[in-house]
Design goal:
Distance between the termini: 48 Å
Oligomer: single chain
Largest sheet: 2 strands, antiparallel
Order of helices and strands: EEHHHHH
Helix content: 55-70%
Number of helices: 5
Structural class: mainly alpha
Amino acid sequence: MTINKSPPTTAHQGGFFTSALSKELRMKPVNDLVAAMVACLNDKLYELFQERSGVREYEGIQARELAEAMALLDVIRMHPKEACDCWLS
C-alpha cells in the first residue's frame, strides 16, 4: 500500500491556512486607505494583520475600523522593511 505524500493544495503556516488564491479571498478593511495598503501586503504580513486586527477588535474591544488601522500600524512596527517593500514594489 502506498501513501500519497504529494504536498497539499493549502499550506499551513503560523496556525492559519493560506492558499494561492488568498489575495482574491481577502476580507476588505472598512477604511479605504487601510484597504489599499493591506491589499499590497504579502500573505505572511496579511495573516499578521488579520490576527492583530481580530485581537484588537474582540479582545481589545475596539471598533473594527480602529482595530484594522492599529493592526496595520502593528505590522509596520513589527516588520518595517518588509511592509515598505510591499508598497514600493
